[in-house]
Amino acid sequence: MSRNAPRIHTEPSAIARLQERIDLLPGGAHVSLLMDDGEEIEGIVVARPSAQLFFGPNGSEGTNATVRLVQPAMYQPESVANTDVWLDRIVLVRRLDPEAQPAPAPGH
Q1: Model confidence, pTM
Q2: How far, in Å, are 10, 45, 66 from residue 97 at the CA level?
Q3: I want to staple 92 with a disulfide (CB 3.0 to 4.6 A). Which of 34, 37, 45, 82 is the partner?
Q4: How far apart are CA 87 and CA 89, in angstroms?
Q5: Is the dihedral of CA 71, 74, 75, 80 positive or negative?
Q6: pLDDT tens digits for 26-76?
Q7: What is the 3-state secondary structure (H, E, C) of 8-77?
Q8: Residues 3-17: pLDDT tens digits?
Q9: CA–CA separation, 61 vs 3, rounded Å?
Q10: How far apart are alpha carbons 29 and 96 in whole angstroms?
């Protein structure tokens, strides 16, 4: 992967937001990501992302992260696709896997 990023972050609050998103994206999680342009991307997290140093468009160094999602094709394995997503573009992470659903209240 290139060490260049379309955007980099140096402010502690922006880096903390990246870390919050990283915490929501464990490996194997089935997620739907709402992006800053309104696009929704669904897939399975290949591996938990980690914040890394990148060079921005002007050559300065800062932090960003990507997550790789796989969109499995159950009936057409040849159409499996990987998508890399910049974490700073994610507005909302929704977990779709059953493990992420709240457990029913006892007695129900």
Answers
A1: 0.82
A2: 33, 11, 21
A3: 34
A4: 5
A5: positive
A6: 999 999 999 999 999 999 999 999 999 999 999 999 999 999 999 876 666
A7: CECCHHHHHHHHHHHHCCCCCCEEEEEECCCCEEEEEECCCCCCEEEECCCCCEEEECEEEEEECCCCCH
A8: 999 999 999 999 999
A9: 10
A10: 8
